[in-house]
Amino acid sequence: MNNIINITDFTIPELQIYSSLSESQLFHYYEPAPGLFIAESPKVIERALDAGYEPVSLLLERKHIEGEARNIISRCGEIPVYTAEFEVLTKLTGFKLTRGALCAMRRTDLPKMEAICSDAHRIAVLENIVNPTNVGAIFRSAAALNIDAVLLTKGCSDPLYRRAARVSMGTVFQIPWTYIDGNGVEWYQNGFRDLKKMGFATAAMALTDRAVNIDDPQLMAEEKLAIILGTEGEGLSDETIANSDYTVCIPMSHGVDSLNVAAAGAVAFWQLGKNNR
What is the pTM of this model? Predict the structure, then answer.
C-alpha cells in the first residue's frame, strides 16, 4: 500500500500544514506560485481529484484506510498518508475531522473571467460575502440549479477554504469560478463594463422601491443574466444596485423582510435558471 505513516510526533514539519498553518498561510505557501488548500471529507477530496487538483499528502483516521478512503489512497500515488485514531487527529488539528479525512492539495492558477463566461447564460456574482459557510452553500446551490459560473469580488471568502469547500460538498471543484479583476479599483467600476461587453444583463438581489419580483417576465426572458448577491447584513453596495439593469426581490410573508444570502441565492438560481435547464 502507499506510504502509510503512523503519527507519533506532532512536531514534524510535514504536519504543520494540518496543525499550525492558517488558511492564509497555506494560500501563500509557494508564493509567488499558487499555494495549498485543505480538502475535508472523502467526497470533497474525490471531487477535487476529479477536477485535476494535485494531492500533496493525506491525513486519515486509521479506520478509513481500508474503508471510505481506500479509493482515494489508490488515486494519490506515493504521497505520504499520515494516520492515527480520531482522538489523536482532533488534538493535532484542533477540530473534529468530517468523515475522518483531510487532503493537502496544490492550488492552480485561476481562469480569466472571459474564459468561464464565454458560453454561459446564467452566472452568479458574489459581492464581499465573507462567511465561508455561505460561500460554500451558494456554490452548492449554483451547481445544482443550473448556474454556469460564479464570479467573486476580492472581498469574498475563498471558495477553497476548508469549510467553504466542505459545505459546498465539493461543488467548488465542479462549477467554474474566478475573481473579478478590479485592477486596483472597486469591482463595479470595471465589472459592469466587462459583463455588458460579454452580453450579460445584471440583476441585483436587493430590497428597493424599484425592485421587480423574481418572476418578472422581462427578467426571466433575458438570454444572459448575471445574478448579483451581496454581503451578509449590509447587502449590496449602493453603487452595485445603481449600476444594475434590474433590482430584484423575493416576495416575503409573515413580516419577514429577507432571507439569508445562501437561501436567497438558492431561490434566485431556481427561478432565474429555469430558461437555462
Answer: 0.92
